[in-house]
Amino acid sequence: MARESWTGRIGFVLAAAGSAVGLGNLWRFPWMTAENGGSAFLLVYLGIVLAVGVPGLLAEFVIGRRSQKSPVGALRDLSGSRNWGHVGLLSVVAGLVLLSFYSVVGGWILRYLVASPTGAYFDNPGAYFGAISFGPTAAAFHVLFLALTAGVVYGGVRDGIERATTVMMPIVFLALIGLSVWVSGLSGASEAYTFYLSFDLDAIQASFLDIVLAAAGQALFTLSVGAGTMITYASYVAEDRSLPADATLVAVLNTAVGVLAGLVVFPLLFSTPGADVETSGPGALFVGVARAFSELPVGRLAAFGFFAVVALAALSSSISMLEIVVAYLVDERDRSRQEAVVGVGAVVLVTGTASAFTPELFEALAGPVVDFVLTTGLFAFVVFAAWVLGGDAIDEFVRGTQFSSGLADAWRLLVGVVIPPFLAFTLLVGVFELLGVTLPSWQLGL
Ligand code: PHE
Ligand code: NA
Hints:
Layout: H1 9-20, H2 23-35, H3 39-67, H4 71-79, H5 82-115, H6 125-132, H7 136-154, H8 157-183, H9 189-197, H10 208-223, H11 229-234, H12 243-271, H13 283-294, H14 299-332, H15 337-357, H16 359-389, H17 391-398, H18 405-435
Helix pairs in contact: 1-8, 1-12, 1-14, 2-10, 2-12, 3-4, 3-10, 3-12, 3-16, 3-17, 3-18, 4-5, 5-7, 5-14, 5-15, 5-16, 6-13, 7-8, 7-14, 7-15, 8-12, 8-14, 9-12, 10-16, 12-13, 13-14, 14-15, 15-16, 16-18, 17-18
This protein binds phenylalanine and sodium ion.
Protein backbone atom coordinates (compact mmCIF):
# COMPACT_ATOMS: atom_id res chain seq x y z
CA MET A 1 0.00 0.00 0.00
CA ALA A 2 1.29 3.46 -0.88
CA ARG A 3 2.26 5.65 2.04
CA GLU A 4 -0.50 7.93 3.23
CA SER A 5 -0.15 11.66 2.58
CA TRP A 6 -1.87 14.99 3.19
CA THR A 7 -4.12 16.30 0.44
CA GLY A 8 -2.03 19.45 0.25
CA ARG A 9 -0.40 22.34 2.02
CA ILE A 10 -3.42 23.43 4.04
CA GLY A 11 -3.91 19.95 5.39
CA PHE A 12 -0.31 19.68 6.52
CA VAL A 13 -0.05 23.16 8.02
CA LEU A 14 -3.34 22.87 9.91
CA ALA A 15 -2.45 19.42 11.22
CA ALA A 16 0.95 20.67 12.38
CA ALA A 17 -0.57 23.83 13.86
CA GLY A 18 -3.20 21.63 15.49
CA SER A 19 -0.43 19.65 17.13
CA ALA A 20 1.33 22.79 18.30
CA VAL A 21 -1.73 24.67 19.55
CA GLY A 22 -2.91 22.93 22.67
CA LEU A 23 -2.89 22.91 26.44
CA GLY A 24 0.60 24.32 26.25
CA ASN A 25 -0.86 27.57 24.95
CA LEU A 26 -4.16 27.69 26.75
CA TRP A 27 -2.95 26.75 30.14
CA ARG A 28 0.79 26.42 30.54
CA PHE A 29 1.79 29.58 28.66
CA PRO A 30 -0.32 32.21 30.46
CA TRP A 31 0.71 30.89 33.82
CA MET A 32 4.35 30.47 33.08
CA THR A 33 4.29 34.05 31.88
CA ALA A 34 2.64 35.25 35.05
CA GLU A 35 4.91 33.24 37.33
CA ASN A 36 8.14 34.19 35.65
CA GLY A 37 7.98 37.94 35.48
CA GLY A 38 5.36 38.72 32.83
CA SER A 39 6.80 40.22 29.70
CA ALA A 40 10.38 39.46 30.77
CA PHE A 41 9.51 35.80 30.45
CA LEU A 42 7.60 36.53 27.28
CA LEU A 43 10.69 38.06 25.68
CA VAL A 44 13.01 35.20 26.63
CA TYR A 45 10.39 32.70 25.52
CA LEU A 46 9.88 34.40 22.15
CA GLY A 47 13.63 34.56 21.70
CA ILE A 48 13.98 30.83 22.31
CA VAL A 49 11.01 30.04 20.08
CA LEU A 50 12.73 31.97 17.28
CA ALA A 51 16.30 30.85 17.86
CA VAL A 52 15.72 27.23 18.92
CA GLY A 53 12.11 26.24 18.38
CA VAL A 54 11.61 27.23 14.76
CA PRO A 55 15.00 25.95 13.53
CA GLY A 56 14.33 22.75 15.50
CA LEU A 57 10.90 22.42 13.96
CA LEU A 58 12.53 22.80 10.56
CA ALA A 59 15.03 20.08 11.40
CA GLU A 60 12.13 17.73 12.12
CA PHE A 61 10.34 18.77 8.91
CA VAL A 62 13.50 18.19 6.88
CA ILE A 63 14.12 14.75 8.39
CA GLY A 64 10.48 13.74 7.94
CA ARG A 65 9.98 14.81 4.34
CA ARG A 66 13.40 13.54 3.27
CA SER A 67 12.81 10.06 4.67
CA GLN A 68 9.06 9.67 4.22
CA LYS A 69 9.29 7.67 7.43
CA SER A 70 8.43 8.10 11.08
CA PRO A 71 11.40 8.79 13.41
CA VAL A 72 12.85 5.30 13.92
CA GLY A 73 12.91 4.45 10.22
CA ALA A 74 13.87 8.01 9.30
CA LEU A 75 17.01 8.13 11.45
CA ARG A 76 17.98 4.58 10.51
CA ASP A 77 17.45 4.85 6.76
CA LEU A 78 18.91 8.30 6.31
CA SER A 79 22.04 7.36 8.26
CA GLY A 80 22.31 3.72 7.25
CA SER A 81 22.90 2.88 10.89
CA ARG A 82 20.71 0.78 13.15
CA ASN A 83 21.98 2.71 16.15
CA TRP A 84 20.37 5.89 14.92
CA GLY A 85 17.19 3.85 14.57
CA HIS A 86 17.45 3.06 18.25
CA VAL A 87 17.83 6.75 19.02
CA GLY A 88 14.58 7.25 17.11
CA LEU A 89 12.83 5.01 19.63
CA LEU A 90 13.01 7.99 21.96
CA SER A 91 10.06 9.37 20.01
CA VAL A 92 7.99 6.32 20.85
CA VAL A 93 8.77 6.89 24.52
CA ALA A 94 7.91 10.58 24.10
CA GLY A 95 4.53 9.77 22.56
CA LEU A 96 3.65 7.45 25.43
CA VAL A 97 4.86 9.85 28.14
CA LEU A 98 2.98 12.77 26.60
CA LEU A 99 -0.28 10.85 26.21
CA SER A 100 -0.11 9.47 29.73
CA PHE A 101 -0.61 12.87 31.33
CA TYR A 102 -2.09 14.91 28.50
CA SER A 103 -5.14 12.71 28.18
CA VAL A 104 -5.77 13.06 31.92
CA VAL A 105 -5.94 16.83 31.51
CA GLY A 106 -8.02 16.29 28.39
CA GLY A 107 -10.35 14.27 30.60
CA TRP A 108 -10.65 17.13 33.11
CA ILE A 109 -11.67 19.39 30.27
CA LEU A 110 -14.35 17.00 29.08
CA ARG A 111 -15.61 16.73 32.65
CA TYR A 112 -15.93 20.53 32.85
CA LEU A 113 -17.50 20.62 29.41
CA VAL A 114 -20.34 18.33 30.38
CA ALA A 115 -20.67 20.02 33.78
CA SER A 116 -20.97 23.51 32.32
CA PRO A 117 -24.62 23.47 31.10
CA THR A 118 -25.82 22.68 34.62
CA GLY A 119 -23.19 24.79 36.36
CA ALA A 120 -22.26 21.79 38.50
CA TYR A 121 -18.96 23.34 39.60
CA PHE A 122 -20.34 26.84 40.22
CA ASP A 123 -21.07 26.53 43.92
CA ASN A 124 -17.62 25.54 45.02
CA PRO A 125 -15.09 25.44 42.18
CA GLY A 126 -12.15 24.52 44.39
CA ALA A 127 -13.88 21.57 46.01
CA TYR A 128 -15.22 20.42 42.65
CA PHE A 129 -11.78 20.33 41.09
CA GLY A 130 -10.41 18.56 44.14
CA ALA A 131 -13.07 15.90 43.79
CA ILE A 132 -12.60 15.14 40.11
CA SER A 133 -8.91 15.80 39.40
CA PHE A 134 -7.52 12.48 40.58
CA GLY A 135 -9.33 9.21 41.09
CA PRO A 136 -12.13 7.29 39.37
CA THR A 137 -13.75 10.32 37.68
CA ALA A 138 -10.41 11.47 36.30
CA ALA A 139 -9.69 7.95 35.04
CA ALA A 140 -13.09 7.61 33.39
CA PHE A 141 -12.85 10.93 31.55
CA HIS A 142 -9.26 10.19 30.57
CA VAL A 143 -10.57 7.05 28.89
CA LEU A 144 -13.21 9.11 27.09
CA PHE A 145 -10.64 11.63 25.88
CA LEU A 146 -8.34 8.82 24.78
CA ALA A 147 -11.19 7.15 22.89
CA LEU A 148 -11.91 10.40 20.99
CA THR A 149 -8.20 10.71 20.18
CA ALA A 150 -8.03 7.11 19.01
CA GLY A 151 -11.18 7.52 16.94
CA VAL A 152 -9.58 10.30 14.89
CA VAL A 153 -6.24 8.53 14.39
CA TYR A 154 -8.08 5.32 13.47
CA GLY A 155 -9.49 7.10 10.42
CA GLY A 156 -6.04 7.65 8.91
CA VAL A 157 -3.94 10.60 7.83
CA ARG A 158 -6.41 12.16 5.40
CA ASP A 159 -9.78 10.90 6.53
CA GLY A 160 -8.96 11.08 10.22
CA ILE A 161 -6.28 13.57 11.23
CA GLU A 162 -6.52 16.00 8.34
CA ARG A 163 -10.27 16.03 8.19
CA ALA A 164 -10.58 16.61 11.94
CA THR A 165 -7.89 19.28 12.25
CA THR A 166 -9.03 21.32 9.24
CA VAL A 167 -12.42 21.65 10.91
CA MET A 168 -11.14 22.11 14.44
CA MET A 169 -8.43 24.70 13.97
CA PRO A 170 -10.50 27.47 12.37
CA ILE A 171 -13.08 27.00 15.13
CA VAL A 172 -10.39 27.33 17.78
CA PHE A 173 -8.98 30.53 16.25
CA LEU A 174 -12.32 32.22 15.70
CA ALA A 175 -13.74 31.21 19.08
CA LEU A 176 -10.67 32.52 20.90
CA ILE A 177 -10.90 35.82 19.08
CA GLY A 178 -14.58 36.02 19.97
CA LEU A 179 -13.93 35.16 23.61
CA SER A 180 -11.13 37.71 23.90
CA VAL A 181 -13.43 40.43 22.60
CA TRP A 182 -16.17 39.38 24.99
CA VAL A 183 -13.95 39.34 28.08
CA SER A 184 -12.43 42.71 27.19
CA GLY A 185 -15.69 44.25 28.41
CA LEU A 186 -15.51 42.63 31.84
CA SER A 187 -14.66 44.63 34.90
CA GLY A 188 -11.03 44.15 35.78
CA ALA A 189 -9.97 43.67 32.17
CA SER A 190 -7.49 46.54 32.09
CA GLU A 191 -6.00 45.38 35.38
CA ALA A 192 -5.64 41.95 33.80
CA TYR A 193 -3.85 43.29 30.74
CA THR A 194 -1.45 45.20 32.95
CA PHE A 195 -0.69 42.11 34.98
CA TYR A 196 -0.22 40.00 31.86
CA LEU A 197 1.78 42.32 29.66
CA SER A 198 3.53 44.89 31.77
CA PHE A 199 7.28 44.75 31.79
CA ASP A 200 7.73 44.70 35.52
CA LEU A 201 11.30 43.86 36.43
CA ASP A 202 10.53 43.95 40.13
CA ALA A 203 7.99 41.22 39.64
CA ILE A 204 10.61 38.81 38.40
CA GLN A 205 10.69 36.33 41.21
CA ALA A 206 12.61 33.55 39.61
CA SER A 207 16.28 33.90 38.80
CA PHE A 208 17.26 34.52 35.21
CA LEU A 209 18.44 30.92 34.95
CA ASP A 210 15.04 29.68 36.06
CA ILE A 211 13.41 31.92 33.50
CA VAL A 212 15.62 30.60 30.72
CA LEU A 213 14.97 27.03 31.77
CA ALA A 214 11.24 27.52 32.03
CA ALA A 215 11.15 29.39 28.74
CA ALA A 216 13.16 26.70 26.97
CA GLY A 217 10.94 23.89 28.20
CA GLN A 218 7.86 25.84 27.27
CA ALA A 219 9.22 26.72 23.82
CA LEU A 220 9.79 23.06 22.93
CA PHE A 221 6.55 21.84 24.44
CA THR A 222 4.41 24.47 22.78
CA LEU A 223 5.85 23.90 19.31
CA SER A 224 5.63 20.10 19.69
CA VAL A 225 9.32 19.69 18.93
CA GLY A 226 11.56 16.97 20.30
CA ALA A 227 8.90 14.28 20.30
CA GLY A 228 9.11 13.28 16.65
CA THR A 229 5.54 14.35 15.99
CA MET A 230 6.72 16.86 13.42
CA ILE A 231 8.99 14.29 11.74
CA THR A 232 6.00 12.01 11.47
CA TYR A 233 3.66 14.68 10.11
CA ALA A 234 6.27 15.91 7.60
CA SER A 235 6.75 12.35 6.41
CA TYR A 236 3.24 12.59 4.98
CA VAL A 237 4.20 15.60 2.85
CA ALA A 238 4.39 14.26 -0.65
CA GLU A 239 5.25 17.33 -2.70
CA ASP A 240 7.81 20.07 -2.98
CA ARG A 241 6.92 23.19 -1.14
CA SER A 242 8.65 25.49 1.24
CA LEU A 243 9.29 23.82 4.57
CA PRO A 244 10.79 27.03 6.05
CA ALA A 245 7.59 28.87 5.17
CA ASP A 246 5.44 26.14 6.69
CA ALA A 247 7.49 26.04 9.89
CA THR A 248 7.23 29.81 10.22
CA LEU A 249 3.50 29.71 9.69
CA VAL A 250 3.04 27.02 12.32
CA ALA A 251 5.13 29.02 14.81
CA VAL A 252 3.22 32.24 14.09
CA LEU A 253 -0.17 30.56 14.51
CA ASN A 254 0.98 28.88 17.70
CA THR A 255 2.32 32.10 19.19
CA ALA A 256 -0.79 34.01 18.22
CA VAL A 257 -2.95 31.48 20.03
CA GLY A 258 -0.67 31.66 23.05
CA VAL A 259 -1.05 35.42 23.26
CA LEU A 260 -4.81 35.22 22.60
CA ALA A 261 -5.17 32.63 25.33
CA GLY A 262 -3.70 35.05 27.83
CA LEU A 263 -6.05 37.76 26.63
CA VAL A 264 -8.95 35.42 27.38
CA VAL A 265 -7.80 33.79 30.61
CA PHE A 266 -6.49 36.77 32.56
CA PRO A 267 -9.51 39.06 32.16
CA LEU A 268 -11.67 36.14 33.28
CA LEU A 269 -9.51 35.61 36.36
CA PHE A 270 -9.51 39.32 37.21
CA SER A 271 -13.27 39.61 36.79
CA THR A 272 -13.93 37.98 40.17
CA PRO A 273 -13.05 40.29 43.03
CA GLY A 274 -10.67 38.71 45.45
CA ALA A 275 -9.77 35.80 43.19
CA ASP A 276 -6.28 34.58 43.86
CA VAL A 277 -4.57 35.37 40.58
CA GLU A 278 -1.27 34.08 41.80
CA THR A 279 -2.60 30.55 42.11
CA SER A 280 -0.66 28.16 39.96
CA GLY A 281 -0.59 24.47 39.17
CA PRO A 282 -3.12 22.20 37.54
CA GLY A 283 -6.06 23.78 39.36
CA ALA A 284 -5.82 27.37 38.23
CA LEU A 285 -7.51 27.08 34.85
CA PHE A 286 -10.21 24.94 36.32
CA VAL A 287 -10.74 26.69 39.62
CA GLY A 288 -10.08 30.30 38.70
CA VAL A 289 -11.78 30.37 35.33
CA ALA A 290 -14.65 28.25 36.59
CA ARG A 291 -15.22 30.70 39.42
CA ALA A 292 -15.29 33.58 36.96
CA PHE A 293 -17.92 31.89 34.81
CA SER A 294 -20.08 31.22 37.84
CA GLU A 295 -20.48 34.97 38.39
CA LEU A 296 -20.98 36.13 34.83
CA PRO A 297 -24.18 36.59 32.89
CA VAL A 298 -24.67 33.66 30.50
CA GLY A 299 -21.86 32.01 32.41
CA ARG A 300 -22.99 28.47 31.70
CA LEU A 301 -23.11 28.99 27.97
CA ALA A 302 -19.81 30.86 27.94
CA ALA A 303 -18.16 28.18 30.06
CA PHE A 304 -19.43 25.50 27.71
CA GLY A 305 -18.00 27.39 24.74
CA PHE A 306 -14.71 27.98 26.48
CA PHE A 307 -14.17 24.36 27.49
CA ALA A 308 -15.29 23.19 24.04
CA VAL A 309 -12.53 25.29 22.48
CA VAL A 310 -9.96 23.99 24.95
CA ALA A 311 -11.11 20.43 24.26
CA LEU A 312 -10.71 20.84 20.49
CA ALA A 313 -7.24 22.33 20.90
CA ALA A 314 -6.22 19.53 23.27
CA LEU A 315 -7.59 16.86 20.96
CA SER A 316 -5.75 18.15 17.90
CA SER A 317 -2.54 17.84 19.96
CA SER A 318 -3.22 14.44 21.48
CA ILE A 319 -3.89 12.89 18.07
CA SER A 320 -0.41 14.00 17.02
CA MET A 321 1.05 12.26 20.07
CA LEU A 322 -0.77 9.02 19.32
CA GLU A 323 0.21 9.22 15.66
CA ILE A 324 3.93 9.07 16.55
CA VAL A 325 3.56 5.64 18.09
CA VAL A 326 0.99 4.40 15.58
CA ALA A 327 3.20 5.42 12.64
CA TYR A 328 6.10 3.54 14.22
CA LEU A 329 4.06 0.35 14.46
CA VAL A 330 2.76 0.76 10.91
CA ASP A 331 6.15 1.60 9.39
CA GLU A 332 8.40 -0.68 11.38
CA ARG A 333 6.26 -3.45 12.80
CA ASP A 334 3.98 -4.21 9.88
CA ARG A 335 0.84 -3.49 11.81
CA SER A 336 -2.30 -2.15 10.25
CA ARG A 337 -3.21 1.35 11.41
CA GLN A 338 -6.29 -0.05 13.12
CA GLU A 339 -4.37 -2.70 15.07
CA ALA A 340 -1.79 -0.12 16.05
CA VAL A 341 -4.40 2.33 17.35
CA VAL A 342 -6.06 -0.34 19.43
CA GLY A 343 -2.72 -1.58 20.79
CA VAL A 344 -1.32 1.81 21.73
CA GLY A 345 -4.72 2.85 23.05
CA ALA A 346 -4.69 -0.15 25.38
CA VAL A 347 -1.23 0.76 26.68
CA VAL A 348 -2.16 4.40 27.35
CA LEU A 349 -5.41 3.25 28.92
CA VAL A 350 -3.25 1.67 31.60
CA THR A 351 -0.50 4.31 31.94
CA GLY A 352 -2.97 7.19 31.83
CA THR A 353 -5.16 5.53 34.44
CA ALA A 354 -2.08 5.18 36.64
CA SER A 355 -1.39 8.90 36.38
CA ALA A 356 -5.09 9.71 36.87
CA PHE A 357 -4.87 7.98 40.25
CA THR A 358 -1.41 9.19 41.24
CA PRO A 359 -0.81 12.96 41.44
CA GLU A 360 2.92 12.44 42.02
CA LEU A 361 3.26 10.38 38.86
CA PHE A 362 1.16 12.84 36.92
CA GLU A 363 3.20 15.85 38.04
CA ALA A 364 6.49 14.11 37.32
CA LEU A 365 5.40 13.18 33.80
CA ALA A 366 3.90 16.60 33.03
CA GLY A 367 6.94 18.47 34.34
CA PRO A 368 10.53 17.23 34.52
CA VAL A 369 10.03 13.97 32.63
CA VAL A 370 8.48 15.50 29.55
CA ASP A 371 10.96 18.40 29.55
CA PHE A 372 13.82 15.91 29.69
CA VAL A 373 12.42 13.71 26.93
CA LEU A 374 11.70 16.60 24.55
CA THR A 375 15.06 18.25 25.13
CA THR A 376 16.95 15.01 24.60
CA GLY A 377 14.89 14.23 21.52
CA LEU A 378 15.43 17.62 19.94
CA PHE A 379 19.14 17.39 20.71
CA ALA A 380 19.30 14.15 18.72
CA PHE A 381 17.24 15.53 15.83
CA VAL A 382 19.23 18.74 15.33
CA VAL A 383 22.57 16.93 15.56
CA PHE A 384 21.26 14.40 13.07
CA ALA A 385 20.02 17.01 10.62
CA ALA A 386 23.19 19.08 10.70
CA TRP A 387 25.88 16.43 10.93
CA VAL A 388 24.44 13.19 9.56
CA LEU A 389 22.16 14.51 6.84
CA GLY A 390 24.44 17.48 6.22
CA GLY A 391 24.28 18.47 2.56
CA ASP A 392 21.08 16.49 2.03
CA ALA A 393 19.47 18.56 4.76
CA ILE A 394 20.43 21.70 2.85
CA ASP A 395 18.87 20.27 -0.33
CA GLU A 396 15.71 19.44 1.53
CA PHE A 397 15.61 22.87 3.15
CA VAL A 398 15.74 24.74 -0.16
CA ARG A 399 13.52 22.29 -2.07
CA GLY A 400 10.33 24.07 -3.08
CA THR A 401 11.66 27.50 -2.03
CA GLN A 402 13.26 30.44 -3.82
CA PHE A 403 16.16 30.39 -1.40
CA SER A 404 19.74 30.02 -2.39
CA SER A 405 21.65 27.80 -0.04
CA GLY A 406 22.94 30.77 2.00
CA LEU A 407 20.00 30.83 4.38
CA ALA A 408 20.11 27.04 4.59
CA ASP A 409 23.77 27.17 5.53
CA ALA A 410 23.01 29.65 8.28
CA TRP A 411 20.25 27.36 9.53
CA ARG A 412 22.63 24.41 9.50
CA LEU A 413 25.15 26.36 11.53
CA LEU A 414 22.45 27.23 14.02
CA VAL A 415 21.10 23.68 14.46
CA GLY A 416 24.54 22.10 14.27
CA VAL A 417 26.67 24.39 16.37
CA VAL A 418 24.58 26.77 18.47
CA ILE A 419 21.51 24.81 19.48
CA PRO A 420 23.08 21.54 20.72
CA PRO A 421 25.21 23.20 23.44
CA PHE A 422 22.21 25.27 24.50
CA LEU A 423 20.04 22.16 24.82
CA ALA A 424 22.82 20.30 26.62
CA PHE A 425 23.09 23.22 29.02
CA THR A 426 19.39 23.23 29.85
CA LEU A 427 19.49 19.45 30.30
CA LEU A 428 22.34 19.77 32.74
CA VAL A 429 20.76 22.57 34.72
CA GLY A 430 17.50 20.64 34.80
CA VAL A 431 19.23 17.54 36.13
CA PHE A 432 21.07 19.58 38.76
CA GLU A 433 17.87 21.17 39.92
CA LEU A 434 16.22 17.79 40.13
CA LEU A 435 19.04 16.28 42.15
CA GLY A 436 19.76 19.40 44.10
CA VAL A 437 17.40 21.43 46.09
CA THR A 438 13.81 22.38 45.55
CA LEU A 439 11.95 21.68 42.36
CA PRO A 440 10.99 25.06 40.90
CA SER A 441 7.28 25.55 40.69
CA TRP A 442 7.23 25.80 36.91
CA GLN A 443 8.07 22.15 36.69
CA LEU A 444 4.98 21.27 38.64
CA GLY A 445 2.60 23.48 36.69
CA LEU A 446 1.09 22.40 33.42
N1 PHE B 1 2.31 21.47 21.54
C1 PHE B 1 1.30 20.84 22.34
C2 PHE B 1 0.66 21.89 23.25
O1 PHE B 1 1.04 23.02 23.25
C3 PHE B 1 1.83 19.69 23.14
C4 PHE B 1 2.63 18.68 22.37
C5 PHE B 1 3.95 18.43 22.69
C6 PHE B 1 2.06 17.95 21.30
C7 PHE B 1 4.71 17.50 21.98
C8 PHE B 1 2.80 17.01 20.59
C9 PHE B 1 4.14 16.79 20.93
O2 PHE B 1 -0.24 21.59 23.98
NA1 NA C 1 1.45 24.91 21.76
